[in-house]
Design brief:
Blueprint lengths: L10 H5 L1 H6 L1 H5 L5 E4 L2 E4 H15 L2 H7 L6 H13 L7 E9 L2 E7 L9 H4 L3 H4 L16 H7 L3 H4 L3 E8 L13 H10 L3 E5 L5 E5 L1 H5 L2 H4 L5
Parallel strand pairs: 5-6
Antiparallel strand pairs: 1-2, 3-4, 3-5, 6-7
């Protein structure tokens, strides 16, 4: 199913068109993530491309109006932007991108990188924490970089951040996959609390995310329990 422009060669897809029509409302609500079509499984995004092709092939204007303008939900819209910001990251271990949003406006963005004027790890082609095999979330005094959350916070005024939401996305440099169980480190949590940010939303998959109430970090002070990492 990789070549969508050649979808006309997939007879089974065309035969299942009427069945797909019955899934219209369900798909629009986003509850279908995978659908078996044309002998293989495809994602919702690929399924939409198939539908889009059928609309043009059969001039189905009624369904084109219904399907072709499926909007991205607001949270994943902001997470998509944060993930794009992460592409500017200069870390050799993990790319993180963060954006701060308040009253439905982006206040600031931030990605992992060395302080202005200093050389980045990507320039030095070495990471001290990687060389020492330091677990994630620990020994950040060895790191040359400023974290994405911190860079976003220092790029905005506190009066703009009070009551805001921070969106965070992490990508493993070695695999290009999303970081599993990503979360701000203990130092970033402190700055997020003091900035007045009330919620942090972290991407788990391209569609799923975790929403954290920052007040939980105040009630549960991990520095008192001696918990390390994240």
């Amino acid at each position: 199913m990789s070549n969508i422009t050649n979808c006309n060669s997939c007879a089974r897809c065309r035969k299942e068109y009427s069945l797909l029509r019955s899934f219209a409302k369900t798909l629009e609500r986003g509850s279908i993530i995978w659908y078996h079509v044309g002998g293989s499984y495809c994602s919702k995004a690929i399924l939409l491309l198939h539908l889009n092709y059928w609309f043009k092939l059969y001039a189905l204007s009624e369904f084109e109006r219904e399907f072709c303008f499926v909007r991205r939900d607001k949270i994943n819209y902001y997470l998509d932007i944060a993930q794009t910001v992460a592409e500017r990251c200069t870390c050799l271990r993990r790319k993180f991108g963060a954006i701060i949003v308040n009253h439905d406006e982006i206040i600031s963005t931030g990605y992992v990188g060395a302080p202005r004027g200093r050389k980045n790890c990507v320039d030095l082609k070495t990471c001290v924490r990687e060389e020492k095999n330091v677990p994630r979330g620990e020994r950040y005094e060895l790191c040359r970089s400023v974290h994405a959350e911190c860079n976003a916070i220092i790029s905005a005024s506190r009066r703009d951040m009070v009551g805001s939401t921070l969106f965070l996305v992490g990508i493993e440099c070695s695999t290009g996959e999303l970081v599993e169980e990503a979360a701000p480190c203990s130092m970033c949590k402190r700055q997020i609390i003091n900035a007045g940010i009330v919620r942090v939303i972290i991407r788990n998959t391209p569609e799923e995310f975790t929403s954290v109430n920052v007040h939980e970090w105040i009630d549960y002070d991990e520095s008192l329990s001696g918990k390390l990492g994240y």
